[in-house]
Amino acid sequence: MSPLATPFPAIFSLAGETALITGGGTGIGRAIAECMHAAGATIVLAGRRENILQEEVARLGERAQYVVHDITNLEGAHILREKTEALVGPVTSLVNNAGIHIKKPAVETTTAEFQRVLDTHVLGSHALTVEFAPGMMERKHGSILFTASMASLFGIPKVIAYTAAKSAYVGMVKGLATEFSPHGLRVNAIAPGWIDTDMSRQAFAGDPERLNKILNRTPTGELGTPQDVGWAAVYLASPAAHFVTGTILPVDGGVSIGF
After folding, report:
1. Which intervals hold domain Ketoreductase (predicted)?
2. Which of 96, 106, 118, 242 satisfies CB 3.0 to 4.6 Å to 125 for a cystine?
3. pLDDT tens-digit profile of 112-149?
4. Which CATH homologous superfamily contains domain 14-194+225-254?
């Protein structure tokens, strides 16, 4: 039986929840949306490419909507909230997933490139968090998730801006959880390991040595699936995780434990 066809015990159900997922049209964000939808949530995808969002909403079907939005438009965060609430009502789960990636040596990374990565990951997610969090705290119910990375946990060469941004998520999660959790709003992150996505396949196609290195240092000896991350997001947003906040959950096949 497909995991998506497995009945959900009520404790893991997201029925009655509404999740906004940035970067939800592709890759890991797409899988998070798929799994949350399968768990019963109403889903809103946010991203810049309307054609991709339309395709995903059509694929998900009932309880799925989208809003075209660029999260680097920091002053426009309220517009995303207003459009989302007009479509589906109050958001109970915000998934800060959208991001960009620049791969080049640190000494070749320009200030403008570094700033663009920080604007997308750190400032973009902060703008949405402070826009949606007050309503969640007022209702004393909510979950905010960040998609962190192995770069949040240890050094990876040639991704210095990405590493800085994803490392910032660790501090943000802990600080926000400390402020928000007394008001019924939990804050957590998932740190995916190396996941089999279209993007990773393109990267590995021209660099088999890198793929072998990754597999050799992964205790399970395989790449993860996007759904591995998606089901972790379901757990963290569900009643089953009501006592879990301020944590970074690696979904990585054991890479981060070291050896």
Report:
1. 17-197
2. 96
3. 999 999 999 999 999 999 999 999 999 999 999 999 99
4. NAD(P)-binding Rossmann-like Domain (3.40.50.720)
Condensed to tens digits (0 to 9), the pLDDT of residues 61-102 reads 999 999 999 999 999 999 999 999 999 999 999 999 999 989
Q: Active-site residue numbers?
A: 162
Sketch the domain layout of the chain as residue ranges: 14-194+225-254
Assess whether pLDDT exceeds 50 at residue 1: no
